[in-house]
Amino acid sequence: MSTSKAKTNSQDNAPRFRSADEEFDENGMPIYHDSLIGTVKSLWAHIGRYKKDTFLTWLFVALETLGEILIPYIMQYLVDEIDVASTETINIGMCFLWGGIMLLLAVFGVIMGILAGFFAASSSAGLGANLRQAMFYKIQDYSFTNIDKFSTSSIVTRTTLDVSNVQFAFQQVVRSLLRAPMLMIFAMIMAFVTEWRLAFIFVAVIPVIGAVLLFIAHFVHPLFVKIFRTYDDLNEDVQENIAGIRAVKAFGRQEEQKKRFGDTSEVIFDKFVRVEKILAFNSPLMQIASYIAILLLCYFGAQLITSYTIVGDKLLFEMSVGELSSLLSYVMQILIALMLITMIYTMVVMSRNSAERIIHIIEEVPDIVSPENGIKEVKNGQVDFNHVRFHFKDNPENDVLKDIDLHFYSGETIGIVGSTGSSKSTLLSMLARLYDVTDGSVMVGGEDVRNYDLHALREAVAVVLQKNTLFKGTIAENLRWGNEFATDEQLKEACDIAQASSFIEGFPDKYETMIVQGGTNVSGGQKQRLCIARALLKSPKILILDDSTSAVDTHTDSLIRKGLSTKFPGTTKFIVAERVLSVKDCDTILVMDDGKVIAQGTNDELMEKCPMYKELYESQLGGGDFDVQAD
Amino acid sequence: MSKQINKKEKLPKGHTLKMIRRVFAIEIKHYPVRFTFAFLCIIIAAVCMVFATVFTGQVIDSCITPMVEKITNAFSNGMVGSYDLTPEFELLGILVGIFVAVIAVGLTCDYFYQYEMAYVAQGTQKIIRDDLFNHMQDLPVSFFDRHTRGDIMSIYSNDVDTLREALSRSWPMVVNSAATILAVLVTMFLTNWILALCTIALSIPTIFFVKAIASRSGKHFLGQQQTLAEADGYVEELINGQRVVKVFNYEERNKKAFDKVNEKLRQESTSANRYANILMPVVNQFSYVQYIAIALIGVALIFADQSVDGALSAAVGISLSTGVIVEFLLLSRSFTRPMGQLAQQTNSIVMALAGLVRILDLIDTPLETDEGYVELVNAKEGEDGNPVEVEERTGKWAWKHPHTDGSPTTYTWLRGKINFYDVDFGYTPEKIVLHNITLYAEPGQKVAFVGPTGAGKTTITNLINRFYDIADGKIRYDDININKIKKADLRRSLGMVLQETELFTGTIKENIRFGKLDATDEEVIAAAKLANADRFITQLPQGYDTMLVKAGTNLSQGQRQLIAIARCAIADPPVMILDEATSSIDSRTEEMVQKGMDAIMQGRTVFVIAHRLSTVKNSDVIMVLENGRITERGSHDELLEKKGKYYQLYTGNSIQAKE
């Protein structure tokens, strides 16, 4: 019958991945910092130019509902007209009159309904678009520290699935927000007008229903929160699997991956079933309440109908049969209104978590921001590291840079070697303010980097990252990341220096060749050269090549370096490399180990004074018998 | 511009039914009992609810009205108070009793169908998710070249999610409404078949209208899901490349590009929902029009009947009294209410269909074919020195080669000999990237590929493990055509350390164990020691139990590569492919890794791709590749002697450069 073998042990079901923005109490339940109203307010702040559409939706919904309320009222007259005819002849004229009024109301209702639907659609889709935009814009301003707080898959889920949830809920809520209370209030008023003594049944039943709703929501909401977090896990599984599909296939690990994914999807299934078990009570309980109301009405109604007083020669009944049937139809109307309210409530409960996940992205404060009136121009490529100390925020005990004090003039070429994890990349990422120093200062062109306009600083400092990325698009589009307005000649020139033009021109579509996501359709070495060309197009004051020729053969590597020194003489160049050959001709070579610069000098000086450098040199070049001709 | 899972502009017409049928086939196959039970519950609940609406009429007709009549009659006969209402109140009691019983049954069924349907719907979603994932595992590598990660991920989240509402709420509502409509229709025909026919006739335009609007809405919902996938892909790509975005000041331009996708999404979403939102008010209000029409037709019928002195009613065999019309009008209300409910569900159903198109598109993508039949089996040495198949792990392997011509199955030792004969290959048939590759790798030999980037080194190794299939020529593994070997077994016999290390969320131990699932902790540590990874792992606070998050981005690239090497070492394969395996490890570490690697390579056939002399130098044979052709081959010394391309590559000597 069921394939489920899942245990409902909360530990098994705990999501693996927890974004840093979500906190939990000791039972693993989410802690909210925002009230529901606060959340709604934050969302509403993004309605922007769709505010008008939202108000129009409400206006038209109100008018549509008015028609909806009036039609059954008119209907009664039509029925009476026909019913009367059992004893007399039918007044066809009156029938057509009431029919005509009803028809007009129906046409009015259709028009209002369509308009309401139109504006509901545009306002909710608009809100969705605004939310996505706000998130994406904010993420663009995040520093690495901010980004590290969320996982990629979590951000993706939030910008798509969570927004869709909120958008859908918003549309339903906007369309029902006025309709439900209007239907209910009208029915109540009519019930009191018709027979106030029986109308108290309504008053008694409605709070009971409200309590039940709240009770259900109380159980369901935390479960929804957990479900959405498991969705992140699921996405993480998929993302990782796609990224690592070659490894999966090479090791024949498909079955284990299937099992792993199956376990995660089982958790989602399991939790949803628990939610549904509770939610399924909603409709029957709601109906029980209304049927109780109907029974009470019939019972007390029968009492009232059979009670009468005699006034003169007339028999005066307390209540008529027609009134009873009207009351019964108001019960149905209230039931419909209640169903709408339940729906709204479920929507709100389901989308509340999505809304908060969105808001957390939007309200995250970027921790590296451009200063106001920052310096707009970087004068030259002079670089000073003044007693720089740095540790990552999440690991304050461990300084990854320890008192670095270095000074370089414009146009110098600096090589950096050192073992894996010696913080070479971290040191250089300070120049483009990818991270800020913990202590000390980093200066470019004689000014603290923190005083520059961020945009201007990063225009002047070109970084070719170790883990580099090309984006989906043509080669030319990718290159123009460096300079939006670069001419074809400039592209070619940069590619010539980066030794990329020969292979680009070997492609049938040349510069228009499409690069797929992650650049997997070009080889590692080609990718690196494209990345260098892209950086060169910025005509930077400072150029950082962070292990960016590792997949390029030595011959090409040397050609690139030669090109750089002749074409970019004024640019300060930092070359991080594993290969001694790549740095040995630099003006200065730094040897780094464990966050410190242990030696500094030219190749010859280091061969003399730095055993670590000498060892490195010999392990790569010294043992051979032909490398000496390298220059 | 972007590659989408589905390029079609609108829902394929005939497929809609087929798609729905497939989903139900899943539900019925996996949850036959629950599904049938839920189905019955829905119908019982519907019938009970129709009864409940009839109940109030019954109470009024058979209890309350007679009571009032009795009182009125007594009064007009001048005998005030002399009447007995006991039978009516008794009847009322009985009716209430029946009502309570029916409602109890109805509401119980209501609960169960809601729960069971939701259960089945969630189960179906799980099955579809798992199907998607399982199917995806066996798709050819080229599929992943063609689709962005975000695009595929969107199917798992956005598209599968559209099914939730549709399967657990909308579909039961449809069945419920249909059952109600049917019950009411039957009652209508029993009451007055002329008006019943009129009702049906009047409903036909509504049905056409709903169909037309739903298909327009569906087109846009499909567009919405596709654009959502596009946005998904865009966000995913840019978040992963956020570092590059920062260093190139590309934030503003990305915002503009995102705005474009976002605006498209907004428009599709607005159109889709606009069409969907039209349905409910139109169907609702149309029900009133229908009501008016029935009332007027009824009146006209009575009028016509009266003018011909009842000849009409006699001719059609039904009474045309006002009472009948009024009763019919009540029924007409019960008929249109479920119609409105149906219309309300179109939104989520149409959206789910759009999601389903994309889901089924992936599930229907043809799998990587595997026509291999030669298997890798555990073996021990027989008396004649030939392999004999055994169940247990012996550490020795043999190829089990059944023959189609009826001759007995042969066994050959797995030795690790790989030969290429005149192999040509192209990712597309039009563009051949490897030409006439011929090479012989004897068991235990180390073969190195060097050459400029893009020469086709990695491509060659991708042919050995059959990530891609050759266009022409032959590849033999221990003299067996590799196409005859089962892919899983072929890949099991090949260890790979790839250019881009791909690790998974989990502990370091688990990641190393990826190479051999039943490895003991000792084996894991031994493999890590061999790859020289043990040193840095033990320095981590949690050692081997350190969690790797986000595909291991909390480790440096070099550390990740060491783990990948350990992962390969533990698999203990006879053939290894090392594709730039040490490129991100610094030279000092590489020295140490190299020792471990040499130990790992001992006695295995190894293909090495590297740009570093030290990695390549001691190979048995070095192949120099240029533009997809092998241009030089020989040992390190032989090639240096030649002073050709190899010499040039490794001296960085530009004088002889020809590029």
Structural features, described:
The complex is a heterodimer of chains A (631) and B (659). Chain A contains 22 helices and 16 strands. By secondary structure, chain A is of the alpha/beta class. Chain A has two domains: 34-363, Up-down Bundle (ABC transporter transmembrane region fold); 383-623, Rossmann fold. In chain A, helix 4 (92-140) packs antiparallel against helix 6, helix 4 packs parallel to helix 12 and helix 16 crosses helix 18 (524-536). The radius of gyration of chain A is 36 Å and the shape is elongated. Chain A starts with 9 loop residues before the first helix and ends in a 9-residue tail after the last helix. The model of chain A is unreliable at 1-20, 25-30 and 622-631 (pLDDT under 50). In chain B, the strands form four sheets. Chain B has a six-stranded mixed β-sheet, with helices on both faces. In chain B, strand 13, helix 17 (587-601) and strand 14 (605-609) form a beta-alpha-beta unit. In chain B, 49% of the residues are buried.
Helix and strand topology:
The complex is a heterodimer of chains A (631) and B (659).
Chain A (H helix, E strand, L loop, with lengths): L9 H4 L9 E2 L5 E2 L4 H9 L6 H34 L7 H49 L3 H6 L2 H25 L2 H16 L1 H48 L1 H6 L3 H26 L2 H25 L1 E4 L2 E4 L3 H43 L19 E8 L10 E8 L4 E6 L5 H6 L9 E6 L2 E2 L5 H7 E4 L8 E2 H5 L8 H10 L3 H6 L7 E2 L8 H13 L5 E5 L7 H14 L4 E5 L3 H4 L4 E6 L2 E6 L1 H7 L1 H12 L9
Parallel strand pairs in A: 7-14, 7-15, 10-13, 13-14
Antiparallel strand pairs in A: 1-2, 3-4, 5-6, 5-8, 8-9, 11-12, 15-16
Helix pairs in contact in A: 2-12, 3-4, 3-7, 4-6, 4-12, 6-8, 6-12, 7-8, 7-12, 8-10, 8-11, 8-12, 11-12, 16-18, 21-22
Chain B lengths: L14 H16 L1 H45 L9 H52 L3 H6 L2 H43 L1 H48 L1 H6 L3 H57 L3 H6 L5 H42 L11 E7 L5 E3 L7 E5 L8 E4 L4 E8 L8 E8 L4 E5 L6 H8 L7 E6 L2 E2 L5 H6 L1 E4 L8 E2 H6 L7 H10 L3 H6 L7 E2 L8 H15 L3 E5 L7 H15 L3 E5 L3 H4 L4 E6 L2 E6 L1 H7 L2 H7 L8
Parallel strand pairs in B: 7-14, 7-15, 10-13, 13-14
Antiparallel strand pairs in B: 1-2, 1-3, 3-4, 5-6, 5-8, 8-9, 11-12, 15-16
Helix pairs in contact in B: 1-2, 1-3, 2-3, 2-5, 3-5, 5-6, 5-10, 6-8, 6-10, 8-10, 14-16
